[in-house]
Each structure stands twice: as structure tokens, then as C-alpha cells.
Amino acid sequence: MATDCIFCKIIKGESPANFVYKDDDMVVFHNIRPSAPVHVLIVPVEHIESVNALQERHSAIISTMMLKSKEIARTLGIQDSGYKLVINVGSGGGQVIFHLHIHLIGGWGAKV
């Protein structure tokens, strides 16, 4: 884990977070600056800087994160109304925290 990474500090319990889910491989917690009524971050425990740093050995955790997203959406009550999964890559792509994470965003409640 990176010593100055805020997500690593959250994972180690050194910084507070409102957790939705936690296991040995990933954590899910509410974004402190939400852009929607529901905005959580799905974060691998292993410090991986971004999608650009992914290696074949990370395929299991990435797959698990994607599959867990639908369970988290159901837990948060937005599975049926819809949600977005967003991964920002690099500063030019909007990445602010350089620890890979998936934004799960939704909760507007509009039915199309």
C-alpha cells in the first residue's frame, strides 16, 4: 500500500469512511463529494494506480469488482432504476486519487 494514498489509509482504518462493503480484496464506501444521490467507490485493497497499471494477475479482482457492483446497486436500492459505473484513468481522464476505483453512481429515481 502507498503510504500517502488516502484510499490506502481508509483501507487500513487510518482515515474514516462510511463503508457499504468490505472483504479481503475490496472495499466499498460512500464518496465524500457525491455527484448523485448514491455515489460509492469500489476500491481494491491492493494499491493499483490506475487501469494503465493493471496486469494479468489483476484479472480476478477486476472481475470481482464488476460483479460486486450489481450487488452493491441492489443493496443501495438502485439496481432497477439504473446506475453508472465510471473509471477515470489518469489526470487527463479526471482521475484525482491515484488508486484504481470504480464510481457507482445513481439514485436519481427517474423511470424511463
Describe the structure in your own words.
- By secondary structure, this protein is of the alpha+beta class.
- It has one domain (6-106): HIT family, subunit A, CATH 3.30.428.10.
- It contains 2 helices and 5 strands.
- The protein has a 5-stranded antiparallel beta sheet, with helices on one face.
- The mean pLDDT is 94.
Describe the structure concisely.
The chain is built from two helices and five strands, in the order H-E-E-E-H-E-E. It has helices at residues 6-12, 59-75, and strands at 19-22, 26-30, 38-44, 83-86, 102-106. It is globular.
Structural class: alpha+beta
Indicate the CATH architecture.
Answer: 2-Layer Sandwich
CATH domain class: Alpha Beta
Terminal CA distance reads: 42 Å
List SSEs in N-to-C order: HEEEHEE
Q: Identify low-pLDDT runs.
A: none
Number of helices: 2
Q: Beta fraction of the residues? A: 15-25%
- What's the Cα radius of gyration? 14 Å
Mean pLDDT: 94
The CATH homologous superfamily is termed HIT-like
Examine the coordinates and then state which fold CATH places here, giving the name of the CATH topology.
HIT family, subunit A
Question: If strands are numbered along the chain, what order do they take across the biggest sheet?
Answer: 1-2-3-5-4
**Which word captures the global form?**
globular
